[in-house]
Amino acid sequence: MIEPEHPGLTIVTQCELLGLARASYYHQPEPETDQNLQLMRVIDETYLAYPVFGSRQMTRWLRRQGYRVNRKRVRRLMLQMGLEAIYQKPNTSRKHPQNPVYRYLLRRMKVERPNQVWAADITYIPIQGGFIYLCAVMDWYSRAVLAWELSNTLDAGFCARAVERAIAEHGVPEIFNTDQGCQFTSSEFTQPLLARGIKISMDGRGRALDNVFVERLWRTVKYDEVYLKSYRSQVDAYTNLDTFFRFYNDRRPHSAFGDADPMTPMEVYRIPVALAINQ
Questions:
Q1: Are 254 and 263 a contacting pair, CB within 8 Å?
Q2: Radius of gyration of the chain (CA)
């Protein structure tokens, strides 16, 4: 938000207008150590297998595997990775008035056509010397990945860009479902949806099963692609993930559509559209 080369406002003035301390603007965060990056990889793999693990249970698990860690360190790394244990928790957090949380709309709903429900989520992707984040937009009916974006920060912007790409290429969904993360409750993410008349649905806090299809997608992405390789950079990650998502959408039969006549996500996504056009 700061423009160093602004012709009329100095950096000091811009920081004052934004309520930002100058020290925060000039601060350069230190990268995670190699040891922490390795630990984050192990935490991510463990979380995929046991998503009910919070920081306390994750710490116990890691100690049994020989890692000398305390809960404070594990909790910080899980927070940085965007990981939270899956279980029903009392809703005691105070919501920011500018970031409203929307009601979950999908309970007992029968999803029976493409573009009826889309969902989005974020996951952590390790790269050499660091990590990045992946946001994907999925059609619930077909399981097709309609758009995705990478970012080196957990901001709302790259999530909003993924949604804009999905809408530009595939039209407008009736309902858009996410979790209650700050990226998805921000006006930058919700306002373009509301402006198009899209209904917003949000999972119950701590209930990843409300967005279960995206959670299953992350498991497929990690086990079939990410953990088989070692991405050198964000560019390398983008190239490989682009190849993988093309394969996932267009060539890989999805287990949700049976074994007798297996179909890929994009085949399922396009067939009802083709039938509607022919009728």
A1: yes
A2: 20
CA-based nearest residue to 44, from 138, 135, 123, 136: 123
Same domain, 151 and 217: yes
Question: What is the C-alpha to C-alpha distance for residues 141 and 273, in angstroms, rounded to an integer?
Answer: 12
Query: How many beta carbons lie within 10 A of that of residue 254, not counting itself?
Result: 20
pLDDT score recorded for residue 275: 44
* pLDDT 10s digits, 41-68: 999 999 988 888 999 999 999 999 999 9
Total structural domains in the chain?
A: 3
Alpha carbons 113 and 250: distance in angstroms, whole number: 18
CATH of the domain at 148: 3.30.420.10
Range of 139's domain? 117-275
* Whether residue 39 sits in one domain with residue 23: no
In the prediction, which pLDDT does 82 show? 84
- Assess contact for 137 and 163: CB atoms under 8 A: yes
Residues 1 and 44 in one domain: no
SS (H, E, C) 63-94: HHCCCCCCHHHHHHHHHHHCCCCCCCCCCCCC
Q: Is the pTM of this model over 0.70?
A: yes
Say how far apart CA 182 and CA 93 lie, in whole Å. 13
Strand 117-127 vs strand 130-139: parallel, antiparallel, or unpaired?
Answer: antiparallel
Q: How far apart are CA 124 and CA 41, in angstroms?
A: 9
Strand ranges for 82-196 from DSSP E: 117-127, 130-139, 145-151, 175-178
Which positions of the chain have pLDDT values less than 70?
1, 18-30, 86-98, 205-211, 257-261, 272-279
Write phi, then psi, for 138 (nearest 5 degrees): -120, 140
Three-class SS of residue 202? strand
